[in-house]
Amino acid sequence: MWDYTDKVKEHFLNPRNVGEIENADAVGEVGSLACGDALKLFIKLDDNKERIVDAKFQTFGCGSAIASSSALTEMIKGKTLDEALDVTNKEIADFLGGLPEEKMHCSVMGQEALEVAIAKYRGGPVPSHDHGHDHEQEGEIVCKCFGLTDGFLRKVIASNKLHTAEQVTHFTKAGGACGGCIPKIKELIAEVLGEQAKDEPRKPGKLTNLRKMQLIQETLEKEIRPLLWADGGDLELVDIAGANVQIAFRKACAGCVSSGYTAKFVEQKLKDLVSDDITVEEVEG
User: Fold this and answer.
1) d(CA 180, CA 50)
2) Which residue, 14, 22, 129, 158, is the most exposed by fewest CB within 10 angstroms?
3) Catalytic residue flag (residue 35)
4) pLDDT of 35-52, one tens digit each?
């Protein structure tokens, strides 16, 4: 399980500012239920329309998403809109005493919602971070599974100094489903940071059938299931037949509309860490 700080636990168990603001001056909505995380942020301004006097949120997601949203609303109250825009996802995580790297996308989602809300209030171009809403695009779509653009990914890479594609996935979910955009993500890292993306963990060489089965089980237990647990889901290993791995999704993942993407993510992770010939099949179990 994740090593959460006491402050994360506090803001998850006793979140501040939950709900909606009637006649809010600004509303920002990001994410989608299909992708597992969604946030709607409400902002109320003072009579001079300069400072934020109230902020509330509605979040669908894991404990980190709830805690990050709660922290964000506390941080921006009393700030001007420009001051609020200066709040970074790192500051949200720092306010909570830190977040596991695998859950940093929750703090990024809060920053996104704030940017969308203020942009809509000011009548300017609304930044697009997902394909669930009709926003103006910031460049070309890189991650088709989550609708993330190269402009958005460049910004997150630069502001958080991300050096690996795995880090980009942790912060944005890009590449976390089918994995098809990983090569492009590495190109963006090289472009933004002026360096090559650091090598990801290398898979072992030639494997015996027994060793391959052991590595598949270890990867599922240590690398994949903890990610699903964090969002209320799980999977069960049903069978291994050569290079074919049969899994069944459990809890929140069972019957989820995104289970096909999740199966592709599991397959790509096993290909990366175990063997290129692995295929993953979702079965009823």
Assistant:
1) 44
2) 22
3) yes
4) 667 899 999 999 999 899
